[in-house]
Amino acid sequence: MKKGRNRKHLVLSKTFALMLSMMFPHIACAQTPENRQGTELSVYDEHDTAALANYMETGYCPHEIAVWGTGGFYSLGRQLPFGRNNNGFGSAFGVGYTYFWSKNWSLSSGLEYAFYRHKVGITDFSETYAIVDILGNPIDYKTQIDRYSETQKLGLLNIPLSIQYQTGGNHRFYALAGLKIGLPISTKYSGSNAVLTASGYYPDYNQTEIWQNDLGYGIFNLPENSGKLDLSVSLSGTFETGLKWNTGIGTALYTGVFADYGFTDMRKSGYAGKALVEYNSIVPNQPKMNTACILSGHFAPVSFGFKVKLAFSVGCRDWLQAKRAYKNMQSIGKRESDDDFYEFDTAALQAGSSKTDTTPVNPVAVIFADTIRIEAPDSTAARAEQERRAYLETAKERREKYSQSIRKLNGSLGNYALGMVTLTDEQKAVLDDYFKALVENPTFSLEITGYTCDLGTDDVNLRIGQERADLAKDYLVEKGIAPLRTVTFSKGESEPLLPNTSEKNRSENRRLEIKIREHE
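The chain above was modelled as a monomer; its predicted structure follows.
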């Protein structure tokens, strides 16, 4: 029997090793940029940043594979109405696949091997049932067990099927619920020594025998016993919740808690009607000891504890490559933004600015849904026409490349409403008012800050906000404003006007804020 158990564990180990060996090369291939072939996103430059931001804000990878491990309480059966019940510590490990049909909803399955352990202690338990003794006489056989303990161990190969929901953002809350089918792989129990007191009542003679060991009556010291549990397939419900952490490009770490409860009784029909101690009609002075699981009202796996899962996005190389390209652009984009800021600041110092006029030139104008929010006035000194024209040449080239990349993505992905970097006629009309103010007041300058909602990563939102602010600046420079009279910033998803709890609120948080400053 020991060789059989070892062979079964060896087969199980080899099965999981084979699954892992097949899975990790697939991960490596999916994460390697050199494997990309024939994609329209194969060439990027720093001007494609907003296009990539749009792509990642609305897109997602539909395929995810994962490995996980758990730990906690893994028990069997309901509590016995007598004696001691000790839930055992167990664990599980598994591999799985998840299909996302949207950014928030997914369906997952896989394979999981779980170890369950349960221990019971029985003191002063008695039962009576009718049998026929070795001589063929009907008797009422009464047994009383004292100081008996038993450990039950079960290894289940679980097949989970669950639906998962996750929130948006870089680090996400998730919850899943579903079912698990459990196939018993390793089933065994082991019991300690026990003291048995047995007697037999003969109704035909109205007599009770308590000391005839050869007939199975008296006090017996039962030896240790062990065996296999005769169990069938289990069906359990499962629930899990926690946080999903973005740990890198195409990788995520799930940390959470879980709870499983078995619905079906795993004991086969052979246990029905059996007693804990059976009369041995062949050798009466050697009573048969059964497993204590027959005393349970409902024998099924029950577990709860902690779960850690490492997940990998696969089968979406274009999306992963776009994320890599965008990440590499962040340092370039940040340096460009910093250069604009310090250039403006130096000019202000050279002009000897020390006074700030907070009197509004225009009433506060607020235009939402990827639009402009105009607040209050301020300013700076004018620059030469030559610098303005040089800036326009650079801005024109940047916008042309940006528009080309948008067209490429729009042709394959469709809707980019959330991440679009455009100016509507209404927004241009508001900017025209500020253009007039700058023309009429040479000491005025603008500060334009871009904001987004909470959809997308922090880096993506910072870049989209910057692109929106830069486009507003480009419009003013095209109309004749010197580049250094306008400075742009981005605050991404920070400082929302309203909580990001609905699409209406999010559309109002996607905005530009323009302030006018005046310097002597």
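The mean pLDDT is 75.
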